[in-house]
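Data availability (excerpt). All sequences and predicted token strings are deposited with the supplementary files. A representative entry, Transferrin receptor, is shown inline so that the format can be inspected without opening the archive.
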Amino acid sequence: FWADLKSALSDRLDAIDFTRAIKMLNENSYVPREA
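Structure token line:
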């Protein structure tokens, strides 16, 4: 049970970090594109 919960939480955290990183990359590359 704990192993499943742990893996589910880690997967969710990875997804959050992934989307957060993509957002940062998009914002960083979005500024020079406009200039």
